[in-house]
Amino acid sequence: MNVIVNVILAVQMLAALAMIGLILIQHGKGADMGAAFGSGSSGSLFGASGSANFLSRTTAVLAAVFFVSTLALAYFGNARPASSGSVLETPAAAVPASASASEAPAAPATPASGAAQIPTK
């Protein structure tokens, strides 16, 4: 199952990077006005409006792949067996008895309570 999650994660990352690239390549809506005055975009590889259709459809397909892979990762993330509880509920690891006194943390000389920290006159 770990291999499947890694493959889905790789597909999601590739789809995201491809979407970023395609979105940055696309022209805005105002860029079509330049073609009417001879800016040269009508002589592109896909024709006058072919690149907009191709790029927008490819972006939509990649967005769908990204969305499906996100749902699959969420499903596999929740399908794992639950542990004994929250990480916050587990006790901290104690210092082993074999540790020497120099490695163990020293106890503070004054108590850490708030009342002991108030200076007296």
UniProtKB/TrEMBL annotation:
Chief localization: membrane
A GO MF term: protein-transporting ATPase activity
Membrane topology category: Multi-pass membrane protein
Gene Ontology, cellular component aspect: plasma membrane
Keywords: Cell membrane, Membrane, Protein transport, Translocation, Transmembrane, Transmembrane helix, Transport
Region (Disordered): 100-121
Subcellular location: Cell membrane
Positions of transmembrane segments: 54-76
One GO BP annotation of this record: protein secretion
One Pfam family recorded for the sequence: SecG
Protein family (similarity comment): Belongs to the SecG family.
The protein's role, per its UniProt record: Involved in protein export. Participates in an early event of protein translocation.
PANTHER family attached to this UniProt entry: PROTEIN-EXPORT MEMBRANE PROTEIN SECG (PTHR34182:SF1)
Protein name: Protein-export membrane protein SecG
Native species: Acidovorax delafieldii (Pseudomonas delafieldii)
